[in-house]
Amino acid sequence: GAGVSQSPSNKVTEKGKDVELRCDPISGHTALYWYRQSLGQGLEFLIYFQGNSAPDKSGLPSDRFSAERTGGSVSTLTIQRTQQEDSAVYLCASSLVKYEQYFGPGTRLTVT
Amino acid sequence: GENVEQHPSTLSVQEGDSAVIKCTYSDSASNYFPWYKQELGKGPQLIIDIRSNVGEKKDQRIAVTLNKTAKHFSLHITETQPEDSAVYFCAASKGGGKLIFGQGTELSVKP
After folding, report:
1. Which of B46, B89, B98 sits opposite A102 (nearest CB)?
2. Which of A1, A26, B32, B98 is 20 to 30 A from B2, comparing alpha carbons?
3. Which residues contact A7 (CB under 8 A, 6 or more apart)?
4. Each residue's pLDDT tens digit, B28-80
5. How far apart are CA A82 and CA A97, in angstroms?
6. How close is the nearest chain A Cα to the Cα of B80, in Å?
């Protein structure tokens, strides 16, 4: 069946611009996670949704980062006033049962 | 805070040999330990996982062992093949929440 999909696959933006990254989880998966993967920091947790609520936002690095999930499905991660240190691959994962998380292909963000 | 240490960072083996990657976690409340394989340009792929009520789990050529007392868990790949070449990540979580990842191991299997 269809896996987790993310769009765009690549995004190049200028410093100071806002960007939106989209995640479509596996159909029926109630939990959704965002992670960031960069060379210096490895794979870092950003935020977790259960349904439309976010019980754990502890990984968001600053108030420039926000995320929402609507209809218990699609999620959008928004980064305002992007900085060069925001350059990374942003990964989304979803899970049906409490544990197994399945990842999408990621969005590679480059801030110039 | 929560931390997962992974070793080695790179591993090179001959085809047919075994490969072992080891991880240590800091939070004794962790109860779920997955392993992911990541190929270039792709997202991490879940290959095997283990929960804290089990000491070992095997799936064909891959196996994972867990020592809760020492807070260690390991991935074992037997009869390695060139297509096993990738970056492998271990992770730990409490109750199915966020995953804390190790730093990754780049495995190279030489034909």
Report:
1. B46
2. A26
3. A21, A22, A24, A107
4. 999 999 999 999 999 999 999 999 888 999 999 999 999 999 999 999 999 99
5. 34
6. 24
